[in-house]
Amino acid sequence: MKKEDVVVLAIESSCDETAAAVVVNGREVLSNIIASQIDVHKIYGGVVPEIASRKHIEKINQVIEEALSGAGRTLEDMDAICVTYGPGLVGALLVGVGTAKALAYAAGKPLVGVHHIEGHICANYIANPELEPPFLCLVASGGHSHLVIVRDYGEYEILGRTRDDAAGEAFDKVARAIGLGYPGGPAIDRLSKEGDPDAIEFPRASIEGAPYDFSFSGVKSAVLNYINGCKMKQIDYRTADIAASFQKAVVDVLTDHTMLAARDYGIRTISIAGGVACNGALRESMSRACDDRGYRFYMPTPLLCTDNAAMIGAAGYYEYRKGVRHGLDLNAVPNLKLG
Ligand code: KG4
Ligand code: ZN
Fold first, then answer.
1. Is the per-residue pLDDT at 219 higher than 80?
2. N or C terminus: which one in the chain shows less Cβ crowding within 10 Å?
3. How many C-beta atoms lie closer than 10 Å to residue 40's C-beta?
4. In what order do the strands lie in the sheet with 80-86?
């Protein structure tokens, strides 16, 4: 540990994971504690905001204590407290923001509010020490699907976004339609391995005049129509084939749009981020497409793709280095924009 090292405590509570981490210089993770609420929300088939907020309140102090003790540090040792302040569920965000403000005030430490999507992107810095901007990042999660150029640390240019459902949302909705539980992404990923991805031709949507935007509501409706059609005609259908064919349609679009943007903008370093970046088929497809074109390809480990606080510590570090400091009037911003 050098004197100039910057150590931050990071807190994330934007959805259904209560998480805290200790990160050094934005790249080295000393601890990364995640208390997942999935088992509770599973019963309802999706995240129930009110329950999420209450569970965050129950867990947050314990998760922070574990993060500090796991790192062998105290609050006193921290150079800053970083916290996700949007986008996300307002009640859930407020638990993290309120706690971070209390800690920053009590310990007299700087407070740095972090954008959740910026966190997802910065997960790539942890897994790949040599990665530096500029690069192109595909962010695909339960709430967002963005194509972003990372111009510099903390400097983003959004090229495209989803017009309707996020990629992860489409996975979750299709999973529900074929009788798989919440969250649907991992379940579809698993079931797809037993199915034929070419069994059913589901649509791959492009938006005229906006080649880097996404739309996933069409493919979701096509899956629902396919199932209803089979039921009406009393034809048997294989859920594994539906899962694999749906997954391929989504992965094709995500890969194609990313490759198109890379070519058009002359960017040869590509990365992926967000919960959907755990998807085996997407990781393979992007890695192959980049290999074919001689692009460098980076992806976080699956644990760093889904919501966690280490990624907030990485993003928070670069914000801190830029001089970003928030006051104790920091509020949760559920629809916070990036860039
Ligand atoms: O990034 P994340 O943890 O939370 C948000 O910020 O939204 O992403 C969660 C989303 C869920 O929709 C989940 O179904 C999806 O990521 N997901 C996956 C996989 N693992 C998680 N989607 C496809 N394949 C996976 N293996
Ligand atoms: Zn997320």
1. yes
2. N
3. 15
4. 28-36, 17-24, 7-12, 80-86, 111-115
Please choose, from the candidates 315, 265, 330, the residue with its C-alpha nearest in 3D space to the C-alpha of residue 114. Answer: 315
Alpha helix positions (H), the chain? 38-42, 49-71, 90-107, 116-127, 167-177, 184-192, 217-232, 239-265, 280-293, 302-305, 310-322
Is 162:331 a contact under the CB 8 Å cutoff?
A: no
Render 100-112 in DSSP notation, one character per residue: HHHHHHHHT--EE
Atom index in ligand 1 nearest the CA of residue 171 equals: 14
C-alpha–C-alpha distance, residues 14 and 92, integer Å: 5
Q: Measured from the CB, is residue 15 less than 6 Å from ligand 1?
A: yes
Which residues, 6 or more positions from 266, have their beta carbon under 8 angstroms from its beta carbon?
A: none
Q: What sign does the dihedral 278-200-164-146 (CA atoms) show?
A: positive
**pLDDT tens-digit profile of 44-76?**
888 999 999 999 999 999 999 999 999 999 999
SS3 category, 136: strand
Q: What is the per-residue pLDDT for 182?
A: 86
Q: Are 139 and 148 in contact (CB under 8 A)?
A: yes
Count Cα neighbours of 44 within 13 Å in the Cβ-side half-sphere: 11
Ligand 1 centroid to Cα of residue 228, in Å, is 26
Q: Is the CB of 12 under 6 A from ligand 1?
A: no
In single-letter form, the type of residue at position 123 comes to A
| Residue ID of nearest Cα to ligand 1 atom 16 | 275
Residue pLDDT, tens place only, 259-281: 999 999 999 999 999 999 999 99
Q: Which residues surround ligand 2, an ion (CB under 5 A)?
A: 141, 307
Tens digit of each residue's pLDDT (9 = 90 or more) over 11-42:
999 999 999 999 999 999 999 999 999 899 98
Asked if 302 contacts 55 with a C-beta cutoff of 8 angstroms, the reply is no
100-102-108 Cα angle (round to 5): 95
CB 320 within 8 A of CB 80: yes
Residue indicated by tokens 């089979």: 230
